[in-house]
Amino acid sequence: MAKESNTVILGASSIIICLLATGLLYAALTINPFETWRHELSNSDGKSVEGKESLRLLFRRLVRGEDRFQLHSSGLSCHSDLHFEQCLARKPVIIDKNASTVYIPSDNEANSEYKIKPYARKEDETAMKVVTPVRIVHGNITPPACDFIHRVPALIFSSGGFTGNLFHEFNEIIIPLFLTCHHFRSRIQFVVTDFKPWWVKKYSRVLSHLSSHAVINPVENGSVHCFPGAIMGLRYHDNLALNYTEIPEGYSMLDFKQFLRESYMLKIKHVSEMKRQRPGLLLLSRRETRKFLNEEKMIEMMEALGFQVIAAMPNQTSNLDTFSGLVNSCSIIVGAHGAGLTNAVFLPTKAVIVQVVPLGLDWPSTAYYGETVGGMGLEYLEYKIKAEESSLIDIYGPDHPVITDPQSVFVKGYEAARAVYVDGQNLKINLVRFRKTLVEAMKLLGHSTPEN
């Protein structure tokens, strides 16, 4: 017998008496529950199963053009882009064990089948190798019986891919989640494939702020879940970005940052609210690759300029519940190119991010942060190291192509370039040059610096 979420359980005898009294027992035994859902989705007042907002309208906001026409005519629309795949079912769906199959019964449609990988990195073969495909079966089919009946739509996405890296977690899951379902006002339930308990725990505040329902781990649950509709896959716009004109209700990255402030209960919205006399500078300290070999000297110089320096160790950054508040209390983040700079999403408006660009990493530094932080309401400065500031010069010498022609290494493939420039490089910063960048940062914050 199917269970219904968010429902008060009555005694069996009471239910039978009530049904007999109203003449509905026969209907309860003979009417297909999917027909009931169809009726509720298309009734005259346009209300959803929760009685608040039309599912038709909520789903419609996610599609444009031909996709919207398909959704309207058949109740099912699938879209494939460079970065993501997404299918919308504005009709009852049945999610089978392990979420490997989604059944969408339809008496009037020819049978069809799709497979999508619900992770927004479609173009990256490495990421997609660890994303389980979801099979979608649509048409005149006989689905398995429901173990659980839910009264809000499902959103299926994967926590596979490049999870474990903060940039990719925000870029390919957290921001796309906000983009896809924030307008549902928590009336949606997450079904997470490739389920990672640590990831769900890490982002519990975000997930609970987007959905008022428990996250379903289909592998552990091993049951058949029925929903009044489903979104399979997450929409994606660009690196750490939201396209204001293509988002329901016109969301921007500033709206996303406000959402994070609410989720993590962050106190400071704008740097003008800072109470410190000395601007707080968060230095992202690395211990393996792209680490600052003269970090102690850098901190001395920063403090001499008037910054209150906090050196964040890698073990501190993993707990977002606490680290987000620390970031929010600072006016500036300084770090070498890497995932840690993604913590800029927690900075107050008009704070400064200073990215140190290692040798050979100009393109990802620009694409991932240089071109994105402006949309977050932040100021951006970068410090490009010179060859003599890279540990690679000691390994290869000043005339080696690794130093003089990084592109010749990248043409050998990403793995070859990564081994050299991402995993094999450390930095010894020229303090005289770097001081000029920090003086500029101090000016952006409206503070003066000591005279030379």
Task: Compile the SSE list and pairings.
Layout: E1 3-4, H1 12-22, H2 25-30, H3 33-41, H4 55-60, H5 65-74, E2 76-80, E3 85-89, E4 93-95, E5 101-105, E6 112-116, H6 125-128, E7 134-139, E8 148-149, E9 154-158, H7 166-181, E10 189-193, H8 197-202, H9 204-210, H10 218-221, E11 225-227, E12 230-232, H11 253-264, E13 280-284, H12 295-304, E14 308-312, H13 314-317, H14 320-328, E15 332-336, E16 352-357, H15 362-370, E17 379-384, H16 392-396, H17 401-404, H18 406-410, H19 414-422, H20 431-444
Parallel strand pairs: 1-8, 5-7, 8-11, 9-10, 9-12, 13-14, 13-15, 15-16, 16-17
Antiparallel strand pairs: 2-3, 3-12, 4-5, 4-11, 6-7
Percent of sequence in beta strands:
15-25%
Rg value = 26 Å
Helix amount: 25-40%
Overall pLDDT score: 88
How many domains make up the 3D coordinates? 2
Distance between the termini: 78 Å
Q: Strand sequence of the main sheet, in spatial order?
A: 1-8-11-4-5-7-6
The total of beta strands comes to 17
Structural class: alpha/beta
Question: What composes the largest sheet?
Answer: 7 strands, mixed
Low-confidence stretches: 6-34, 37-52
- Give the overall form: elongated
Question: What's the tally of helices?
Answer: 20
